[in-house]
Amino acid sequence: MAFWNLNSLELEAFRPGINSRAELGEQLIMAYMEIAAGEEDSGHLHPYDQCGVVMAGRIEMFIGSERKLLSPSQTYFIPAGEPHGWKTFDEPATLLDISSRQPGA
Amino acid sequence: MAFWNLNSLELEAFRPGINSRAELGEQLIMAYMEIAAGEEDSGHLHPYDQCGVVMAGRIEMFIGSERKLLSPSQTYFIPAGEPHGWKTFDEPATLLDISSRQPGA
Question: Could you tell me the fold of the domain covering B29-100?
Answer without folding.
Answer: Jelly Rolls (2.60.120)
